[in-house]
Amino acid sequence: MGERLLTYVEAINEGIREEMRRDERVIVFGEEVAAAGGVYKVTRELLREFGPRRVMDTPISEIAIVGAAIGAALMGLRPVVEIMFFDFLGIAFDQLVTHASKLRFMSGGQVKVPMVVRTQYSLGRSYGSQHTQFFASAFLQAPGLKVVLPATPADAKGLIKSSIRDDNPVLFIEAGALYVDRSYMGYRGPVPEGEHLVPLGKADVKRRGSDVTVVAVSRTVSEALVAAERLGAEGISCEVVDVRTIQPMDYRTILESVRRTNRLVIADDSVKTGGISAEIAAHVAEEGFEYLEAPIIRLNSPPMPTPQSPALEKRYMVTSDKIVGAVRALLA
Fold first, then answer.
1. CA atoms of 150 and 175, how far apart (whole Å)
2. Alpha carbon distance 152, 173 (integer Å)
3. Cα 226 to Cα 230: distance, rounded to the nearest angstrom
4. For residue 176, which of 38, 35, 65 has the smallest C-alpha distance?
5. Whose C-alpha in 14, 16, 226, 295 is 20 to 30 A from the C-alpha of 160?
């Protein structure tokens, strides 16, 4: 099977398009996803191919968008809906957490809610405090909801296809920086030709190493890979693990990596308290404490709103420089 170079946006678009061709129950709706092709062009040309009965613009009402998706899923469709910014998902929190995630359980499995809610967080794009929030860890408290965070074009395509086919509600969180910033490794990459599925709940070792494990989430995977390249030039071998999904979380792959390297750094755009890194660190401490030869280091956003100033935002974010510094400190 061959490969092509696709951008992160192109890969997600291709995955949705293939699933719409495969299954006429797949529909797409959200703000500006039809005629405009999405604000970030992820749904570009879908209206042209599939028509207005399957690709629809909606009013500006996040709670209505997610509520309509729940209804459509209950009636046998497979909706893929877009919430333009992750921050705005707070408005639809009740629909997603109180209803979508629980209906299959509360009905004793008699109903399914096969829906995908796509959204993106814009950390790194100087959009200010109300358009850059990354609170994915909040949804770890919603059993029944799967949470997916692709970091490369290949994973983005494979995971969106698997998410659409899943019979449970899926929150599909994209990194807005990977839409536009060519400096990120995740902006463009090889994507297999033909049918390409990535299973939900399976982490991926993006780079093998022996001295330290760096577990990364979404945007920080690109930062971790850059850091690993730099550290490799110094003779330090970093293993980079991309979690890919946080609900369910593939703890086995993380623990196996830590058992090999005996050291762990976690890079996560969440605020440190209660973030994804906290859950990973807690699990490793519970299940793999004997593997550790040094304390776990967590790199997170600081406990404050994101600055809009590009220079300040850069200092706020988890970067390859911070990962390099953490690894050096750990090995020292």
1. 8
2. 12
3. 6
4. 38
5. 226
Kind plus residue range of the DSSP H or E element containing 79: strand 78-83
- Would you say 213 and 170 are in contact if contact means Cβ atoms under 8 Å apart? no
> Which architecture does CATH list for 3-192?
3-Layer(aba) Sandwich (3.40)
Q: Which residues are catalytic?
A: 131
Helix (H) or strand (E) holding 247: strand 245-247
Which of the 8 DSSP states describes residue 96?
A: I
Residues of the chain with CATH 3.40.50.920: 204-331
Q: How far is it, in rounded angstroms, from Cα 79 to Cα 69?
A: 6
DSSP string for residues in 170-237: EEEEEEHHHHH-TTSTTTEEEEESS-----TT--EEEE--SSEEEEE-TTHHHHHHHHHHHHHTTT--
Given a contact cutoff of 8 angstroms between Cβ atoms, the answer to whether 27 and 54 are in contact is yes
Question: Considering only CA atoms, which of 38, 127, 141, 46 is closest in space to residue 83?
Answer: 38
Sequential pLDDT tens for the chain (332 residues): 689 999 999 999 999 999 999 999 999 999 999 999 998 999 999 999 999 999 999 999 999 999 999 999 999 999 999 999 999 999 999 999 999 999 999 999 999 999 999 999 999 999 999 999 999 999 999 999 999 999 999 999 999 999 999 999 999 999 999 999 999 999 999 999 989 999 999 999 999 999 999 999 999 999 999 999 999 999 999 999 999 999 999 999 999 999 999 999 999 999 999 999 999 999 999 999 999 999 999 999 999 999 999 999 999 999 999 999 999 999 98
The DSSP annotation for 251-320 comes to HHHHHHHHHHHS-EEEEEEEESTTSHHHHHHHHHHHH-GGG-SS--EEEEE-SSPPPSSHHHHHHHS--H
Instruction: Specify whether the CB–CB gap between 264 and 255 falls below 8 A.
Output: no
> CATH fold of 204-331, please?
Rossmann fold (3.40.50)
In the three-class reduction of DSSP (H, G, I as helix; E, B as strand; rest coil), residue 10 is classed as helix
Instruction: State both tokens at 75.
Output: 């009636």
Pairwise CA distance, residues 203 & 188, whole Å:
20
Q: Specify which residues 188 forms β-bridges with.
A: 7
